[in-house]
Structures are given as C-alpha cells and as structure tokens.
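Project standup — Tuesday

K.O.: blocked on the structure for the chain from last sprint. Re-posting the sequence here as requested.
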Amino acid sequence: MGAGRLQDAGRSGKALVLHFQNGTGCGILSPDFEQPERKGEDRMPAIGFDNQKYLTTQSEQIKKRIAQFGGKLYLEFGGKLFDDYHASRVLPGFEPDSKIRMLQQLQDDVEILIAINAADIEKNKVRGDLGITYDDDVLRLIDIFRGMGFYVGGVVMSRYSGQGAADAFLKRLTTLGIRCYRHYPIAGYPSDVQHIVSDEGLGKNEYVETTHPLVVVTAPGPGSGKMATCLSQLYHDYKRGIKAGYAKFETFPIWNLPLQHPVNLAYEAATADLGDVNMIDPFHLAAYGETTVNYNRDVEIFPVLSAMFERIMGECPYKSPTDMGVNMAGKCIVDDEAVCAAARQEIVRRYYTALCDRRVGAAGDELVNKLELLMQQAHVDPSIRPVVAAAAQVAEETGNPAGAIELPSGEVVTGKTTDLMGASSATLLNALKRLAGIDHQHHLISREAIEPIQAVKVNHLGSVNPRLHSDETLIALAISATTNPLAKRALDQLSALRGCEAHSTVILSPVDSSTYSRLGLRLTCEPQYETNKLYHK
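H.V.: unblocked you, prediction finished:
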C-alpha cells in the first residue's frame, strides 16, 4: 500500500520504475529503460498559452463582429463553453472555463439559446464525457448559465416532428418555466437553398424574440442544430426588418497554424469518429492569397451558406469559411514547443482510447487506423509516454495488472495488484505518498481498516472483487486522515495529481476510470481486460 522509495533519474534520462518488495505494493525505483531527457530536478509542465491575453483579445474580436453587423450577432458556439479539457490539454495554460469567462466580460450583452436535436432525445443520446443524456445536459447547462448570471432565452428543439420523447421533454421544460421553440425538418436541407430560405422552409420555424446584442447558440453536442438555429433567426429577423449577422466560434482547428501542426492533428484525433478532416481553406486562399486551415464540413457547406446569406441578407458578408470564425486562440500561443509536446501526448491518448473502444466493440479498425496515421503524421508513438513502459514492466514482473503515474517532477510512480487493492488504487496511493514526501515504509491505511470494507463489498453488496477501487481507497484514506497526520498529508496532495499522465495495463472499471478522470489524471489503458470473462461491468 505504501509508496515506492524514489531516486532521481532526471539527469540520466532514465525512467523511474517501481520494483516491489514485501508484497505490500511498495517498492524502489531503478532506471531500467530509456525515456526522453528531463530538464531539471523539479520539472513542471511548460506553459504554452497566454490565457489572460486570450480572454482580452477574444472578447474584443467578438465586439468588433457585433459592430460589423450593426449591433446584433448570432454566434454559433462549437465545442464546449466550459469544461473544455481538450483545449486545456493541447494548449497548456488554457483554462477549461476560459470561453465562459470570456463571455462574462460581455455578460450584459449576452443571451443564450440552447439547441437540441429531437432525434437525440428520442434515442437517449449520452454525452460520453459526463455520462448523462442530452436532455438532462440541457437542464444542467441552463442551471450553470443562470448560476453565472447569464440570461437564457430558451431552448430550440431542432428537427422536431412530433416525437413522443421530444414532446415529453418540451412539456417538462414548459413546466419548469423555460421558453421552448420548435424547428422542423426542411426538405432538401442543406442543398435546396431556394426552398430552405422561404416561408415553407426556415419561415415555418418558431421565432425566438431575442433581446440582447450577442445571441450565443450552444448545444449539448454536435449535430444539435446550432447553425440551422442561427440561419432561422436571421431569416425571421430580416423579414421583420431587424439587421443581424452570423459568426462561428470554433477553437479547433486553429486557422492560423499549419495544417500538419500537432495541435491541429490533435483536433483530428479528437474528432476522428466524426470523420472530420483538416484542410486548407480554398476559398480563403483564392480571395486573399493566404493559407489558412479549416475542416471539411465547413469548407463543403460554405457555398451553400454563402447562397443562403445572399437570399436572406442581400449579400454574403464572408468570402471564406475562415472569415466566418472569430477564434483568436492561435494568437495567444506563447510557446510553440510546449503546445506541440502537449498535442502529441493527446494524439497518443486518443489512440489508446480508440484501441480500447475497438476492444469493447464501440469502434472498428477504421478508427484505429486513422489514429495510427495521425501518429505517423505527428511523428510520435506510445514511447513518448513514460508511464506506458513503467506500468508494462511491473505487470511483466508480477504477472498481474499494474499502473503508473507520472508526477509533475517527471518521476514515474507505479503500483501493482495486491490482495487489498487493485493496481489503480495502489498506484494512486503511491503517487500521493510520493507527492507528500512520505517514506514507503509508512502505511497510511491499515489492513484492519480495509478488511471490513472488503467484507461489506463481498458479503452484502454482491461484489466478486474484494479489492478496493480507487474511490473506496480515497474514502478509506480520508477516514484514516482523521487520526493519522500522514494520511492527511497525503490526502492534501490530491489537487497535485491534476494534469498528471497515467497508464494502466488493463482496461479499468468504470468506477476507477471515472475517479481518475475526476481527479484530472490523463489516463490511458492497454486494450485488454484483467480476465477472460465475457461480462466486464
């Protein structure tokens, strides 16, 4: 259960691997395999992104776009308004809530519309990162926006055609006092521009009477109808003589970085399951002679959008899909080497995710092959993650699942499977002990405290695995902290794990992977289960 005794291999360029003794999950480190050279004894992740500059320049850019259209702008918000952990991983220094904080600087001018696809409600579509359905996420988003002082103008139900589940959700929203609007499927969308931009197309949609200069249109996930909502609003506004404009806010791909830049490749890796591909914006190149990067869906739809804008507004205000964007993230990168390194790590993490998805039947060879190609383009492979080799070595030595965590200093701490704890729990506890400077000989949780928990799990809760999961280990540690000062010292280090790399030699249980995620650990797993059973829940 204790942490391993560590020696600094920072100057030798050797990885730090735990070898276990006394059957306790404790160990010492030896430099048995190569890893990239470490700089300094207390290596900290390099900051590559100026977050404060981003908040300032991004809000200024949006203000300019509002003024461009005479004081009203519909801003389609792609990606996550908050909890944008992909951006924070590939742009070290970017805060996950940066976009919502940026909007707070414009708060008095902001109104928020949330779009949700009726079909997603009907099939109970779930947000993979949160594990909740899209309709529940709409309620969560409203609560958060209101809690931050934003005005939520309502919910737009896109592609509504009388679905039962959609009707039930609309009734639920209305009961809660939330304004709701139905947008209907349009025949020929998006290619039949003449029909779309007519009273029988966009004109049939229910109109949202907005009251603020900046109308942010967001959604629980992709395919929710954000762009269609913006177009519908523009159509109705211009019919009423109200001048307004449209712009798009997508953080990735970053338009002023090269096509093959690791940050843009990491975006392709993140959206590989959607079939998105980065490409040079041919319209921007033709109009300005300037090479910029966009992605295939925006490039493909631009001629249609341009035609729609002409019919709605009299002329298209943009010459390229890049023109439509307001993203200033590329202007706020201050250390290209740091963001490249972070993006390469993200690509490898996405590769492991694809491998595991294929193993559990949630993805096929095509996704894995695409991620392998992206790794080749980024000139990386799993060896850039020291935790992979460290965990593998312990697994080979013990014949059981093992884990590894790379600390902010660059040291790698590992953990093995014991009769008391799973490898993920042991690794987590070892990392906390190391961060707290606690010698490996000190036990933070006694066997006498763990065994009753195991008895309850097996004898009363129906568990077939008596070993403590990560969350159970943390609860046991918290209880021990009331009487053991060392346990409290270790517990106080939990926040230091955020942003640390982790690896498991087996696919972790949902509870363990969820605990690692909530702690901010960046976990990858080998695509294999601990046992050969068919049911692994």
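K.O.: great, moving the ticket to review. The two ends are 25 Å apart (CA to CA). Residues 513 and 523 are 8 Å apart (CA to CA).
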